[in-house]
Amino acid sequence: MSSEVIMRTPSRLMFSLQPTPSIRDKVLNVVAGGGIILLFVSALLYMAWQVWPMVGLLLFCGAIFMSSLPDERRRRREGRRLSVVRSGESICHFARSFKWRQVDSWIIRATWEILQPYVPFPVRSSDTLEQLVGNDDEEQWDLLEDIARVSGRTLTEVDEMPRTVEQLVLLLNSQPATVFRRQHLFLPPSVNPFSPPGTTYR
After folding, report:
1. Is the pLDDT of residue 5 over 70?
2. What rounded mean pLDDT belongs to the chain?
3. Do the Cβ atoms of 172 and 151 come closer than 8 Å?
4. Which candidate, 32, 165, 189, 158, places its Cα nearest to that of 94?
């Protein structure tokens, strides 16, 4: 009788559900995986190439916006300070800063009424246009044209934009009056001199 003991194969050695892949299969799997990765990377690069100009533009605009924030905060802070310092000032104080016998009152009033809505503090003749409306040249020229039109002045001899409000008033005062303004230098006897602002006459 043989003394050898026969043992059952342990379960850990049972057959695998899928057969062990051959070397060829392993190579094909590596190539397929690498192809998928390459395709994915290529797609990302293509998207980046297409989107990058837009991303660059957005970053540029964002940088400009962020750089303007400190200036805007400084302007608001200065505006609040001047509102307190100039409390109680009106167009009368503004007009007294000019020689009323030499400067057309129409220009003084037109300048005050057109510039005042831009700031929360009373306008003074010493204020700069940049301080009141910013450094937008086009905006400043539009305001100059509006004031000239309201006060009846032409802009035929203007080479450069004045820097301060006083310079703007004196510049317009030196410009020729329009035909319509010359026709209305004096109030007709039929018009009440105490008519409310905005009353028109011919």
Report:
1. no
2. 77
3. yes
4. 165
For residue 9, what pLDDT is reported? 38
CA-CA-CA-CA torsion for 133, 134, 138, 142, nearest 10 degrees?
A: 10
User: What 3 state SS string does the chain have?
Assistant: CCCCCCCCCCHHHCCCCCCCCCHHHHHHHHHHHHHHHHHHHHHHHHHHHHHHHHHHHHHHHHHHHHHHHHHHHHHHHHHHHHHHHCCCCCHHHHHCCCCCCCCCHHHHHHHHHHHHHHCCCCCCCCCEHHHHHCCCHHHHHHHHHHHHHHHCECCCCCCCCCCEHHHHHHHHHCCCECHHHHHCCCCCCCCCCCCCCCCCCC
d(CA 54, CA 71): 27
Model pTM above 0.90: no
CA-closest candidate to residue 181, choices 148, 139, 151? 151
Alpha-carbon radius of gyration of the chain: 40
Indicate the pLDDT class of residue 135, thresholds 50, 70 and 90. confident
Amino acid 104: pLDDT? 92
Distance CA 137, CA 134 (A): 8
